[in-house]
Design goal:
Length: 526
């Protein structure tokens, strides 16, 4: 099935999310929409799937204009979509989830899942999905849940499958398996629209690439284009994709976590008895698929979790039981994983956001009075130092781009002497150019002798920044490995396999791949 988007424009009030976008997806083609977060990719696909009505433009299927009033119309036309955040009911079985919205009943009015089970098994066998129709979704690994989403679309006879940032919650091994599935779907004639900002994956699987920047198509590229070329198209200028950093020179271990357990309100141990330390002048990166205790770990260090057992020592001082303000004032810098919720107040000025944790301290305040002149003076200095793209520190922080908002948060946290620096998802939703800048600032803080803890679900970022890598799985510490540990080993550790077993399994896999003469690509780990 041929799919064409012609002149698609979508406005939300004064915001122009899509600006006259033209895209043609040929039958049996993997067509990647590449762009940074906020470029307009997902909005465009929501228009295609009938979730949004276009302000202008038209959609053509096999050269005939179509109009979708909702996802049902899109599915009826042969278009399926796997959303970045899965649309599954955890307490339902696979078959119940697949049948949802298109249920069939027996003559007595009872739900009939036999036909759905048969279709699931047929698709699962065809593509090697290994999905049990009667398994509860909440019991399935994330990678298998994603296969269920794909099955939902294929059961409805999707000829075009939209995958929106499909690898965001996957381990590297799950990602490789998904890319293989995409190739199988393509070989059976299914067209795929692959939305991503991850250059490695895009280059590995795409037939053609359309680059979107700020709501506009800025060009097309072949997957043979270099990562540097693609990155430059994404941000509109030349960028460096490699971080030039000297080896760490770790000193004394001043930050220590001992037998730390965090208990959720439901009694679950979200962090389960973990211990590690970080030396001055060292970056420890915490890796793992989102939702394995990383958030709770950082909140425990900051004093944001109530039910914490164990010990967190900074220069020998216990942090457990102290207030958030007291911990920050003791020299802990913290960049939260969601800047819009926890890092900034969007309606406050940039200048005010730059002193959120020091508004009551000299030189910004004296007694109960603030000094606007000092606040603005600080803003001008930080804006210049951190290359925040704005015309004035008096503008609301919410008017800045994602990358510049993150620079404001980073500038605030790094503009005072620190005894510990923690950055959670430091470059989430940030353009490639800003990533380059922020990574350099993190390394510079390390080189000043500060112990640094980075939490990231982006494995490339972990490998780029880390001097050592700790992997969390279901709240437990799987192990700590040195920088330079391979993607394959780290990916297996992210699935809960010990470092020793992961290294052995990865070596066995590599040996099999190199011994297989039919494997021309040498087992691409995208």
């Amino acid at each position: 099935m041929k799919l064409e988007l012609r002149g698609i424009t979508k406005r939300f009030g004064s915001l122009l999310a899509n600006d006259h976008i033209d895209v043609v997806v040929e039958p049996g083609q993997i067509h990647c929409l590449l762009g940074e977060n906020g470029a307009g990719k997902s909005t465009l696909m929501n228009v295609l799937y009938g979730l949004y009505e276009p302000t202008e433009g038209e959609i053509l299927v096999d050269d005939k204009p179509v109009s979708f009033r909702g996802p049902g119309d899109a599915m009826a036309a042969g278009i399926g979509m796997v959303h970045q955040h899965f649309m599954l009911v955890p307490v339902f079985t696979v078959a119940e989830n697949v049948a949802l919205g298109a249920e069939s009943t027996t003559a007595g009015g009872f739900l009939n899942l036999d036909d759905t089970r048969r279709k699931i098994k047929e698709i699962s066998d065809r593509y090697g999905f290994d999905v049990d129709p009667d398994a509860l979704v909440e019991d399935l690994p994330v990678g298998v849940q994603q296969r269920v989403e794909i099955i939902k679309a294929l059961v409805r006879d999707a000829k075009v499958l939209i995958l929106d940032e499909p690898t965001a919650v996957l381990t590297p091994q799950d990602t490789d398996e998904l890319l293989d599935i995409m190739r199988q779907l393509k070989s059976n004639g299914t067209s795929i629209v692959f939305i991503s900002h991850k250059l490695r994956e895009v280059k590995a699987v795409s037939d053609t690439i359309t680059v979107i920047r700020r709501g506009k198509v800025v060009g097309s590229a072949d997957p043979t284009a270099s990562a540097t070329e693609l990155a430059s198209m994404m941000v509109g200028r030349a960028v460096s994709l490699t971080l030039d950093k000297a080896p760490a020179s770790p000193k004394e271990k001043t930050f220590q976590v001992k037998d730390l357990t965090v208990i959720a309100p439901n009694g679950q141990h979200t962090v389960d008895g973990i211990s590690f330390d970080i030396a001055r002048g060292e970056i420890l990166a915490i890796a793992g698929v989102q939702g394995n205790g990383q958030t709770e770990l950082t909140e425990a260090v900051l004093g944001l979790q109530d039910r914490v057992h164990g010990s967190i020592l900074l220069d020998g001082e216990e942090l457990v039981g102290r207030s958030v303000k007291d911990i920050l004032n003791s020299g802990v810098g913290f960049v939260p994983e969601d800047r819009s919720v926890d890092g900034l107040i969007g309606t406050f000025s940039i200048a005010e956001n730059l002193i959120l944790d020091r508004y009551d301290q000299v030189p910004f305040a004296k007694g109960i009075s603030m000094s606007p002149a000092k606040v603005l003076e600080n803003a001008k200095s930080r804006i210049e130092e951190f290359d925040v793209r704005t015309t004035s520190g008096l503008l609301a922080a919410g008017t800045l781009s994602g990358g510049n908002q993150q620079k404001v948060v980073m500038a605030r946290e790094l503009s005072r002497p620190l005894r510990l620096f923690i950055a959670s998802q430091p470059t989430r939703g940030v353009d490639v150019g800003s990533i380059e800048f922020l990574h350099k600032r993190i390394v510079a803080e390390r080189d000043q002798g500060t112990p640094v803890m980075i939490i990231s679900t982006e494995l490339d970022e972990v490998m780029e920044l880390a001097d050592r890598i700790a992997v969390l799985y279901k709240g437990k510490l799987v192990g700590i490995v040195p920088a330079g540990t391979g993607r394959g080993v780290l990916g297996l550790m992210m699935a809960g396999i010990s470092p020793e077993d992961a290294a052995s399994a990865d070596k066995t896999s590599a040996d099999k791949t190199s011994a297989d003469p039919t494997s021309a690509e040498g087992g691409d780990h995208a």
